[in-house]
Fold EAL domain-containing protein.
Amino acid sequence: GKQTGRNNFQFYTPAMNEQALERLRIEGDLRSALDNNEFLLHYQPKVDLASGRIVGSEALIRWQHPQLGMVSPARFIGLAEETGLILPIGAWVLRTACVQCRRWQLDGHDDISVSVNLSVGQFLQKDLVISIADVLEDTGLPPASLELELTESLMMTDVEHAIGILTGLKELGVRLSIDDFGTGYSSLAYLKRFPIDVLKIDRSFVRDITIDADDAAITASIISLARHLKLRVIAEGVETDEQLDYLRHYGCDEIQGYLFSPPVPAEKFEQLLRQERAV
Ligand code: C2E
Ligand code: CA
Ligand code: CA
Ligand code: CA
């Protein structure tokens, strides 16, 4: 009503600070970013600890803004979710990552896989399973070479519905991973009902693993849990040799982090793959 309108007016005009302005600007620019080809993907290697080889890549979106420069996803993924723009953006990420991964495979890196982060909006999209099947068919990427990273909160909003979607995705043959594991509020009882393949230990636990006994215990427990549930387990945010030693000691399967490589452009990732073949 009128009252609300006036309150809004009073609230916004004097209080419109830099942050709110930036938000408005980013939201406006986000609408045209896809058409203007301003997004790109960086890829971060996932390294298998048993073989020491790169076995996968996580696709991470970047926004090359014409004035602001490189904008990190932390600054626009939330907005993209609120505005619904995450649907076209997410579809672009998925297709681009699958095309890229298939190219690496055809270049002789047969075993490389790609992981894509899925947001809530995408997950709840009616035709998610069909659209992923389409992308796999169009790009020729084997389903087992695609991994979807999902968060606990995304799956816990409606557990029964989530299990239905996850089952549909599993039937396609794609791999499913729980991202940021341990930071959400999923119940262990549900874990066995979710048809997932991988647990990804959040960076917040890995960070202090060598100095904080609690973080070390939590990490060791997640690895043990994964083993018993016959899931693969990967640690993210590995930055030091000491962290790596701990993770290896506890039996972690894979690592991802600055220690090995930050997320890099596709050409750089391909270089990493080639270097590896040369040794
Ligand atoms: P995430 O899925 O947990 O991704 C891991 C984040 O940790 C990435 O940040 C990565 O660059 C960073 N990272 C990797 N190794 C290290 C390390 O050793 N140390 C430190 N300090 N950080 C490390 P990034 O790329 O800024 O992405 C942030 C978040 O944005 C992601 O967190 C993910 O939730 C979201 N995101 C990124 N790309 C996409 C996308 O294409 N779609 C969706 N829905 N979300 C995305
Ligand atoms: Ca992720
Ligand atoms: Ca994380
Ligand atoms: Ca995440």
Observations:
- The CA atoms of residues 198 and 210 lie 23 Å apart.
